[in-house]
């Protein structure tokens, strides 16, 4: 570990300078030689580093979601070129290039944190050995060397012997109890962070090998922290525990406000959003508009939670727009006159269905308009119309039975009398 820490000695000066500046502030409050002053200085160092890494954290989230989306395509490539590793790698790189995805983007925050971690380890290890490193002078070295956190010196380790710990002004029991508790908390926070990612913020509609890898890491990482934690000084344990708690809180915020599509977290988020939009009749936050805009743009590709959200808005008389806003449903105005007074009512526009016609209306050619008479007057009688008696006396020709039945008002589609066979 000392060899690795020495490789990052170039960042030892900035890390030690930040710690000293925070120590001056907290030392004026709690006392320069107290563990609170030095411990809070390390915590503040973590906060500064994590704030600087927020843009990379956002890229990590986007890269992780992009990798989850590409898992089905990656699986197809692996099955298609399972006997040709070189072609498989080429197709994978081509897929990454076309989609603009970089697998290493999800590891950037951890990789960029490692120099600060090893630099802090180098500083605290120098304090334990009595060596001035970076910006820390001899007076600050003596102050940090005897600063205790809950009875354990900052430079003490779980594996240190009794003589080494006594030289730092502490007891073996106090150091091992404090370090053991901190290692357990560090491992538990790592496990909970990974677990909430797997149970709440993963698309459950797609089963990929990536999910199995994440489940394995959920159990491997806490064990690794427990194994390596016994060789970390108390100050480094404070650093790592603080960064784990920060990661857990940061991830909870992201899951709550910007969940992965298709996950359980998205279902809960859209349910809350639908309740707020229905209550206020509009979308207030810009981030909510971005999410609604993305849902509208998907069209038929929406998942179950997104379709339920759109249908819930429609039932409430609201419609999501392409720009991420919501508007009320279309209305129509109707004027009702009653006794000389006119009132205007607003109702939701509905499609008017045509009324079903009766049998008599279908036979006579449609419904009669209001005031229309069913009989014709003498003046309106057609000139070429023949008396009814003439029609009765007119002899019927053979084969004209169907026509006479149609004129008498019977249905044309009724059974016809069979024709008599012709005589030769």
Q: Secondary-structure blueprint of this entry?
A:
Layout: H1 2-7, H2 12-30, H3 35-52, H4 54-80, H5 85-99, H6 108-129, H7 138-145, E1 148-149, E2 152-153, H8 162-167, H9 172-200, H10 209-229, H11 234-257, H12 264-280, H13 286-298, H14 304-315, E3 318-320, E4 326-328, E5 331-338, E6 341-348, H15 359-364, H16 388-393, H17 401-407
Antiparallel strand pairs: 1-2, 3-4, 5-6
Helix pairs in contact: 2-3, 3-11, 4-5, 6-11, 9-10, 9-11, 12-14
DSSP, total strands: 6
Task: Quote the distance from N terminus to C terminus.
Answer: 122 Å
Low-confidence stretches: 331-352, 368-409
Which word captures the global form?
elongated
Mean pLDDT rating? 74
Q: How much of the sequence is in beta strands? A: 5-15%
Question: Percent helix among the residues?
Answer: 55-70%
Widest sheet, order of strands: 1-2
Biggest β-sheet strands, sense, barrel: 2 strands, antiparallel
How large is the radius of gyration? 41 Å
Order of helices and strands: HHHHHHHEEHHHHHHHEEEEHHH
Structural class: mainly alpha
Q: What is the count of helical runs?
A: 17
